[in-house]
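The methods section describes the discrete structure representation at length, but only in general terms. An entry of this sort, consisting of the sequence and the corresponding backbone structure tokens, reads as follows.
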Amino acid sequence: MQLTLQQIAASFSVGDFEKAYPYFSENITWDVVGENSFTGKKAVMENCEQVAVYFKSVTTRFTTANIIADNNRVAIDGTAEFLRDGKRVAYVWACDVYEFNEQQQLQKITSYCIQEKK
């Protein structure tokens, strides 16, 4: 089953990375603004796997506020709450901007994350 651009983006935004993998271009880039940049399918997938390990170590509650699509771009904003043993360990407001090429492959992800200060 072929996913829509919005479905690919939404899967990635909530950490369901494996659904998005088949749609990665070979030269994909992922910029987590102010933190890290990853270039190439292998590097992006390796970072996804590291993030997935963290997600599995906590209970995650993702809330999507908006999905905005325009041609080959999709923007998703929302929040993520991370809990361990019933206690909040992190709360993040996030916006991910996805850009797809003409073959509907994901070529660029820009993530803006603001973590709640304790």
